[in-house]
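lol ok so funny story. i was supposed to be doing the assay writeup but got distracted and ended up predicting the structure for this chain instead. priorities right. anyway since i did it might as well share w the group, maybe its usefull for someone
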Amino acid sequence: MIDEKPKNTGTRKLFESPVLERLTRTHIAVPTSILVLYAVALFYWSLTHTALTWGIATLLFFAGWFVFTWVEYNAHRYVFHMGTYTKLRSKIQYTIHGVHHEYPKDKDWLAMPPILSISISTILLLLLRLVLGDYVFAFLPGFLVGYSVYLGIHYSVHAFSPPRNFFKALWVNHSIHHYKDGESVFGVSSPLWDYIYGTMPRNARNG
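and the output, tada:
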């Protein structure tokens, strides 16, 4: 649970070490570029060094993207919004997500640092290779592009005014999560799983 009331200006220093503090902050373009390049390299490998056809690789790519939307929802709901019933859990939760709820306009906190992005991508590659074999080289790119799109959307809804088209719903949904009910609307890049799991408020459903 997140108790911090949002402040639309300012920031907060999380670490005493200036090096560690700097490593936890990043411009959105850095991790998104890394993720897309990583994805392109893996997908190229799938077409040139495995027996996967263009058709199968494309299906796996979009399957990976779809799976990411489910992971995004569950990570946001159960990890970023974990119960804070101990001091340690409260500190962890605040560091990974609570600070963003307290300072939602702080653009440096809107993306995972590059080192973590590369590390997690590589760990996923190694683990999923054990399960999926060569399929991972087409599946993981979709997952990583999905994550990159999520980062871009999340940055945009905090940094820019909502557009005058159907994408406005993403701005509205995330505003509900930040300013009205932090225990609902966990999907950022897609509201699909909020509808499936019943965490989309009635006013959003009817609006």
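The CA atoms of residues 163 and 171 lie 9 Å apart. The first helix runs from residue 18 to 23.
back to the writeup now i swear
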